[in-house]
Amino acid sequence: AIPLVVAISTTISAQKGLLIRNRTAFEESRKITAMVFDKTGTLTEGQFGVTRVVSLVDQVDETALIRTATALEQQSQHPIAQGIVREAKTRNLAPLSISDFQSITGKGISATVDGKKVAVVSPGYLKENGIELPKGAYSSGAETVVFVLQDQQIIGFIALADTIRSNSKEAVQRLQEAGIKVYMATGDNQKVADAVAKELGLDGVFAEVLPDQKVRIVKDLQQKGQFVAMTGDGVNDAPALAQANVGIAVGSGTDVAAETADIILVNSNPTDITNLVEFGKATYRKMI
Ligand code: ADP
Ligand code: MG
């Protein structure tokens, strides 16, 4: 029966925005009991707009802050980087040159600008490195915030907002109706994660997750007896996709993620996964 199923699944899934790379993935997808979604670009649009630019030192104004951050972000492919670069374009800011660019995996980026060591980093990076915020400087809503550092001192921050995809809620509800627990894993901060989780009615959320911690999340769920599907887009997501029972690479993501995955979510649309699961269950019901 497998070749028939493969034939059916390949035909149908092509129309539904899925590329099935592994013959058994379709068969396996009906067994999924836990679904772990990426936030950025899967449950959300992955299009960050800058909402606030706040300088925390006298010598640096808003324009200088965005200009410095942009010098670094031009080298990055992260959706946050794209949002900041777009903002600089809107403001017609001339580019600065940099050297020694480095990516701090899952936490930010750094480089040398004008002889100074500059970094754009996550709240988690500040905590880890014992860098304290000036009191009352920063009250966060459900925004993604990155801090701009100069010689390891905070000079300001940039807040950004992404929007939840219009069909994410439906995707989550239908998966839950099919008996699947729906989780989200994100490198973003807890407040943003909680806001998305509440809006979508998720069963659980993992925030401020470093890329290499995603494997652990999958393993823990598996140890609790769950049959786990996971979506991911980055190079660093590949081990988690390999560990998952069904690894799903987001279409807009990296080649490494795609090569490791069983399924590619061509349009990064979460309802396409819901369709697959429902279709898988229905097909097997008919065949048995
Ligand atoms: P996610 O894919 O959930 O956004 P990442 O691991 O890619 O998670 O990023 C985690 C966090 O690290 C981001 O929320 C941000 O704070 C920080 N970060 C990552 N890349 C960049 C970047 N290019 N510029 C600024 N901050 C970054
Ligand atoms: Mg990522």
From TrEMBL:
The chain crosses the membrane at residues 1-14. It is found in: Cell membrane; Endomembrane system. It comes from the Bacteria. Belongs to the cation transport ATPase (P-type) (TC 3.A.3) family. Type IB subfamily. This is Heavy metal translocating P-type ATPase. The lineage of its organism: Bacteria, Pseudomonadati, Bacteroidota, Cytophagia, Cytophagales. The chain holds residues 343 to 630 of 685 of the full protein.
